[in-house]
């Protein structure tokens, strides 16, 4: 029995290392011939591999065997965010000195931080504090295995999504704990996220002056509640077109490329050939 377990573990380790190698070497802009060459250069023992569609093969290997941030993120988008209507999702938004993995804005604003089993939690408290200064709700997305460690670390306002992965690499997500409304929303920090032209246009300013002067005027003449409402409107307007592009083209985009296409919004056929 122990030999069978050892062989199974060895197989899992090999698949993990293969997927990790492919992820490190992969680029969305690589041609089919470059991807074929990349696959041929990486040793594997699986005789079922074929290169008829190398990008699809690489996508499958990574998603099923390498549970890193990209794999968790793309599966969360598929299983949760794509199923939610009337909202705009944002990738990699800089908030203070942190960068939120995903954000969502509809009636409420939500930030998500992914912590995989490959991640440490050294910066988590600081990250969540930065997110709560700008977004109304904050969630941590973690595996079932990492849940006890996460619960000991995060702030009480933060919600939790947990995920499990089947033997075939299928992800299942569940909202384990709801998020409470942030007690530390900071209008000044919300304004820092906005572009100068957005401040001028959305807050209906009369003078296009220095950014500092604009911010000070808004803070003096608008309530925190109003600033938060306008902030959410701006975020939706700024990223709506990119998010709708990804939603409309998701069936033609490989999951490992979701973030690239969100950022660049180019017809997939022009990139994949």
UniProtKB/TrEMBL annotation:
Domain of life: Bacteria
InterPro entries attached to this UniProt entry: Sce7726-like
Name of the featured protein: Sce7726 family protein
């Amino acid at each position: 029995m122990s030999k069978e377990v050892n062989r199974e573990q060895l197989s899992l380790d090999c698949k993990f290392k293969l997927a990790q190698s492919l992820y490190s070497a992969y680029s969305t802009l690589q041609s089919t011939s470059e991807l074929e060459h990349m696959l041929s250069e990486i040793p594997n023992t699986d005789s079922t591999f074929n290169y008829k569609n190398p990008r699809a093969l690489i996508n499958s290997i990574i998603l099923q065997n390498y549970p890193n941030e990209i794999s968790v993120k793309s599966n969360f988008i598929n299983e949760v965010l794509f199923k939610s209507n009337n909202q705009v999702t944002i990738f990699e938004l800089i908030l203070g000195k942190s960068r939120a993995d995903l954000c969502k804005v509809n009636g409420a604003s939500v930030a998500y931080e992914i912590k995989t089993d490959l991640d440490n939690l050294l910066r988590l408290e600081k990250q969540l504090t930065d997110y709560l200064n700008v977004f109304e709700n904050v969630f941590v997305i973690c595996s079932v295995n990492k849940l006890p460690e996460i619960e000991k670390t995060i702030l009480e306002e933060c919600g939790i999504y947990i995920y499990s992965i089947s033997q075939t690499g299928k992800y299942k997500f569940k909202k384990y704990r709801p998020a409470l409304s942030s007690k530390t929303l900071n209008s000044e920090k919300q304004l820092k996220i906005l572009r100068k032209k957005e401040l001028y246009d959305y807050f209906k300013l009369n003078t296009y002056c220095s950014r500092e002067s604009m911010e000070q005027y808004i803070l003096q003449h608008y309530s925190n509640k109003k600033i938060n409402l306008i902030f959410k409107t701006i975020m939706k307007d700024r990223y709506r077109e990119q998010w709708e592009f990804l939603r409309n083209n998701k069936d033609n985009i490989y999951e490992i490329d979701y973030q690239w296409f969100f950022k660049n919004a180019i017809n997939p056929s022009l990139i994949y050939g």
